[in-house]
Each structure stands twice: as structure tokens, then as C-alpha cells.
Write a structure and sequence with these properties.
- This protein is of the alpha+beta class.
- It is built from 4 helices and 9 strands; from the N terminus they run αααββαβββββββ.
Amino acid sequence: MIEINLIPDVKQEMIKAQKMRNTAISLSIFAAIAAGAIVVLLALLVVAQSVHEGYSRDQIKQQFAKLQGTENIDNALTIQRQLKEITRLHDNKSIDSRLLDVIGAINPTAPNDMKYSSVKLDPTAKTVTIEGMASNGYAATETFRKLILNTKVESTTDDETQSVALTDQVVISQTSYGEGSDGARVLRFTISFTYPDGLFDNTLSNVRIVTPNSKVDVTDSRTRVPDSLFIEKAKDAKEAN
């Protein structure tokens, strides 16, 4: 069987052009629909945002009006600020009572024990200055100095123990012989050292003073210094006739 294509080339070109036109129209329609959907979504977002902003403004106005209607609101806000300030002050408060335990722990045993006439704490310079006397003379002050240098400050946080030196330098000055209240010859001295951060504030917790001879828990000032540790200043020694 023999088939003869009776459609001329011009007709075929026209059909091909119509197909391309239909395809282009279809794509244009789809693109227009997609663009329209995007425009609708954007419009919905704008409307939703406007509604949300309006709702938020209304809530703010309602809450503000409620606060304004609260009796003594100014006093309540003032108390709240004071409570925050109390917390801050508590965190930064100085625990000076620990000083009593420190000076008790670092006092050497007899015969090199010390009698204190004055103890000063300077939180700004972080120094402790002790004026005292020793019946065993310069041997006692040297023992005192070495004991302070070998004393550690331990603290425990979350079952982890940390240890730092009480100080790395001890200065002894104003040494001279004098006469104690009992008439005995004593060496008068002034000794000072710089203490580590946290010893006298809330930075460190569960604090212990560890010397080569003892360990003193100072967290709650459990140890109290005996009155015998303090004494009046020694007088100038009388010259022998």
C-alpha cells in the first residue's frame, strides 16, 4: 500500500506554530496562576502581621491599664528593686568574721606563740596587718612568717576542692623590744600580708585555713579566737641602772 502525504510543507509549518503557541499560552497561564498565588500569600502575611501588631498593642494597653489600676504600684516596684539590690549586696558582702579564725590558725605553738595587740583588715588593698609581741624574740617572728607563707586556703565547690596560698609575701617591720604587761621582755613587731580573693567575701564557699599543723573550717566561723590571744601593747623597756 502506498501513502501519499497530501499536506503541503506550509500547512505543516502552520500546525507546528500552533502547537508552540498553545504551549506558550499554557505556560503563561501557569506562571500567572503561580504569581497570583504568591501575591495572595504575601497579602495574607501582611494582614496577619497587622492583626498581630494590633493584638499586641491591645494587650500592652490592657496590661498597662491594669498596672495603673493596681493600688500602691509604685511601692511594689520600689520593693522589687530593693529585693534585687539586697541580692546583689548579699553576693558582695564582706565576711569579716573569718579574720578571727585566720589569725587563730596562723598563730604558732609555744614557745613561738604570739600575742596580738591590733589586727587590721583592709578590703581595698586586700591586706591584713597585725601588731603583736613575742616572748621568744626574733626566732618567734621568723617562725610566724614561715607559718603564714606555708598556710593554704581551701574551698570546695561541687565536690571539687581548690587550694591557694594564703599569701606569697610577708612583711615584718617596726620590730623593737619592750615590756609586756607582766613585766617580761618581749619583741614588738608589725606584720602584714596580702590575702587571696574570696577569703573574706562570698566568692569562695566551704572555706578552710590549712596550716602545716592544723586545718580550721572558717565557713561559718565555727572556731572562735580565745581572749588570751589578744593583749595590750607592750611598753618600752626600762633601761637598767
